[in-house]
Amino acid sequence: MIGKVRFSITMSLDGFVSGPNQSEQNPLGMGGMALHEWLFGLEAWRKSHGEGGGVVNPSTPVVEELESGYGAVVMGRNMFGPIRGPWKDESWRGWWGSDPPYHTPVFVLTHHERGSLQMEGGTTFHFVTDGIEAALARARSAAGQRDVLIAGGASVIQQYLAARLVDEFQISLVPLLLGDGERLLENLDGSIGLEQVEVIEAPRVTHLKYRCIDR
Amino acid sequence: MIGKVRFSITMSLDGFVSGPNQSEQNPLGMGGMALHEWLFGLEAWRKSHGEGGGVVNPSTPVVEELESGYGAVVMGRNMFGPIRGPWKDESWRGWWGSDPPYHTPVFVLTHHERGSLQMEGGTTFHFVTDGIEAALARARSAAGQRDVLIAGGASVIQQYLAARLVDEFQISLVPLLLGDGERLLENLDGSIGLEQVEVIEAPRVTHLKYRCIDR
């Protein structure tokens, strides 16, 4: 029994996972925060981010499933931070403060070497410079029988989809038109086979789960 | 009580309503027929297109609702046929044979005048050269208290959405990546407010209904 490679991401109805003009002040771009409105009010999400209150609704089991069952994470460098090019120093330690919400090893894809970064709560960032397959191999090894979560962003997800390395994914589709930004499903050649696995209707979002199949 | 202005269209998970390289032989483009696989096997669809057999499943009420309740149709010229520029003669009478599946007046948006075309079964094609608002006004008048159906294609739907003239729409989202073709939701500025109304999970498709709201 080996874990799955999966991702889970919120997408606007017109296909964007972040709005235009991303910056350090606005990492999700213009309008991008509205993508996650369905999430921020949930008790399940607030609890795992150290906040009280919140509601329980059909999105709750979706978030609980997403936040459990994985043993390692892979993410792109732009998801880790806004710095481009070589690391100037070691001061940037991610968007998430001293205790990031991952609590597992996180493999950050980058072209620039950097030493591992141990955070509180079990998260350790490892910087991988030899490509998506090497990063996945290390993540699989760290995850053992648990899943590997491809955290994003869009470009990293596209690369893993194109390489046929994703087993399953979930898109949380929100009734929002962003008009511009970073598209999730592009640069894909149309030969990737998908199977619809499960659909969950919830307030202000529909969670769609798909399996990748050979065809 | 006035009818709604609505559209209903099948879209790939990556946002396309037809594949690349549309032609007279292949009006939905490469891979575009696969978009409608969920539909062609349905008894409800086969019956309204003069064919026997077929299955009943959760898509059935969706198709029945789509095919009833409207009193007029608006479509773009490219949806009516493959001819571009002035009409050379009157020989092109649509893709659908002598008895098109609309059974109401159909207003075709074009820059080139042409006399109305009465078909069997109650469909009459009218060619409208003075823009989307004029076409909608004529369609509303013909529909009376029934709905006006914006049949497509993508560009026409975008124009009506951008002009805030759509009340409600349904996207039948299929687990397919086309990679290229005609995108439904682009050229839109992101200020259109949407409300998720209903979600229906069915074999090989998810039907998502949204309402357009001011915000």
Question: What this model shows, in words?
Answer:
2 copies of one chain form a homodimer. Chain A has 6 helices and 11 strands. Chain A has 215 residues and is of the alpha/beta class. Chain A has a single domain, classed as Dihydrofolate Reductase, subunit A (3-Layer(aba) Sandwich). In chain A, strands 5-6-4-3-7-1-8-11-10 form a 9-stranded mixed beta sheet. Chain A has a two-stranded antiparallel ribbon with strand order 2-9. The model of chain A has no long low-confidence stretch (mean pLDDT 93). At the A-B interface, strand 10 and strand 11 of A face strand 10 and strand 11 of B.
Structural features:
homodimer, 215 residues, alpha/beta, Dihydrofolate Reductase, subunit A, 6 helices
Q: Domain count of chain A, please report it.
A: 1
Number of helices of chain A: 6
Helical proportion of chain A, percent range: 10-25%
Query: What is the ordering of alpha helices and beta strands of chain A?
Result: EEHHHEHEEEHEHEEEE
* Class derived from helix and strand content of chain A: alpha/beta
And the CATH topology of chain A? Dihydrofolate Reductase, subunit A
Give the CATH class of chain A: Alpha Beta
What shape does the CA trace of chain A take?
globular
Chain pair sharing the greatest interface: A-B, 31 and 31 residues
E-strand count of chain A: 11
Radius of gyration computed on alpha carbons of chain A: 17 Å
Question: What distance separates the N and C termini of chain A?
Answer: 24 Å
Q: Architecture of chain A, CATH level 2?
A: 3-Layer(aba) Sandwich
Percent of residues in beta strands of chain A: 25-35%
User: Averaging pLDDT over every residue of chain A, what do you get?
Assistant: 93
